[in-house]
Specification:
Elements: H1 2-83, H2 87-101, H3 103-108
């Protein structure tokens, strides 16, 4: 009877070890699958962020180009307006500006 009990105990111990090893294998596989899934999600998110950043950069550059273009148009309009003024009008305007900066200089000229 003792031998039979010992054999049963050893059989149960072997079954427990086999189940434990199988569970360990399943857990290891689950961890590996989870790692792969997380890495894939990480790569996908990096790619998405790069795309969003590229789009934001492009939009920012376009806004800067648009603003620079508007500044250039305004400068060109100002140049055109000044070029259209007569010398007499320009002299009066310069005299007014000088008087505003240095009131004594206007009366001396």
């Amino acid at each position: 009877m003792e031998q039979s009990t010992l054999q049963e105990i050893l059989a149960v111990e072997r079954e427990i070890r086999e189940r434990f090893d199988a569970e360990r294998e399943k857990a290891g596989q689950w961890l590996e699958d989870a790692r792969r899934e997380i890495e894939a999600a990480h790569r996908s998110e990096i790619a998405r962020l790069k795309e969003v950043t590229a789009q934001a950069d492009a939009a920012t550059q376009q806004r800067a180009r648009d603003k620079a273009g508007e500044i250039l148009r305004q400068a060109q309009d100002a140049i055109t307006a000044v070029n259209g003024l007569s010398d007499e009008v320009l002299r009066r305007r310069i005299a007014q500006c000088i008087a505003a900066i240095n009131p004594g200089a206007a009366s001396a000229g």
